[in-house]
């Protein structure tokens, strides 16, 4: 092992150990602000899922499970043209990636449900973009299409893929991803004068993409 890397790891080890000892108290306090400040100094990999859920305000209950079940039923009831874009994107990106191909089925499940979630339209209130519209056949009525207002582009599935290493439960994974998208990720592909857009891009590339390294 490189001497500099070895020294760096030895130097950081006591800090990570101290953080790990504090984590149970942070989780017991159940305060998102406290958890956010705590994570700035390092987040133990084994408790990352709980801490991120706390920061994002995702506390899975019966309502979350019912919502996910309803969205899954919408997927089975109606095939959308947008589904083909989702299939193609996953096939061209995650399925061909050595680190993410094992999550192919999970990505299909999450992104198809995501496309049916009409609650996501609310994020356009703070976005420079407008939800795409379509005309209902045989009428002059327009509706948001796809239902969530988000047209997936090449690489969209990679927003979700790193999170698959953190969350095994599809319901928790979905709601964490949804919160991340409406708070941060949508700014990564919209024109915006928001002062922290570059920070969001930095956050995604340096924190979420390398997350799988903790499991190897």
Number of helices: 8
Q: How many strands, what sense, and barrel or not for the largest sheet? A: 2 strands, antiparallel
Please state the CA-atom Rg, rounded to the nearest Å: 19 Å
What spatial order of strands do you see in the largest sheet?
1-2
Q: In one word, what is the shape? A: globular
Number of strands: 2
Distance between the termini: 16 Å
Give the SSE order as H and E letters.
Answer: HHHHHHEEHH
Summing up helix and strand content along with how strands pair, one would put the structural category as: mainly alpha
Report strand %: under 5%
Oligomer: single chain
The chain-level mean pLDDT equals 80
Helix content: 40-55%
Domains, number: 2
Q: Show unreliable segments.
A: 1-16, 210-216
Protein name: TBC1 domain family member 19
Keywords: Membrane, Transmembrane, Transmembrane helix
Organism: Araneus ventricosus
InterPro entries: Rab-GAP_TBC_sf, TBC1D19
């Amino acid at each position: 092992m490189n001497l500099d890397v070895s020294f760096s790891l030895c130097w950081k080890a006591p800090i990570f150990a101290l953080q790990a000892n504090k984590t149970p108290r942070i989780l017991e306090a159940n305060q998102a602000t406290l958890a956010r400040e705590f994570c700035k100094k390092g987040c133990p990999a084994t408790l990352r899922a709980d801490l991120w859920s706390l920061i994002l305000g995702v506390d899975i209950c019966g309502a979350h499970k019912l919502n996910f079940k309803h969205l899954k039923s919408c997927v089975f009831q109606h095939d959308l043209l947008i589904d083909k874009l989702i299939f193609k994107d996953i096939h061209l990106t995650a399925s061909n990636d050595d680190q993410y191909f094992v999550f192919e089925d999970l990505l299909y499940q999450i992104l198809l449900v995501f496309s049916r979630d009409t609650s996501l339209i609310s994020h356009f209130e703070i976005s420079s973009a407008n939800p795409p519209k379509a005309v209902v056949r045989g009428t002059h009525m327009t509706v948001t299409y796809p239902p969530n207002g988000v047209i997936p582009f090449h690489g969209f599935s990679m927003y979700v893929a790193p999170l698959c290493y953190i969350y095994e439960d599809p319901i928790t994974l979905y709601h964490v991803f949804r919160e991340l998208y409406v708070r941060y990720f949508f700014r990564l592909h919209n024109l915006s004068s928001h002062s922290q857009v570059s920070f969001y891009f930095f956050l995604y590339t340096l924190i979420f993409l390398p997350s799988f390294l903790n499991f190897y």
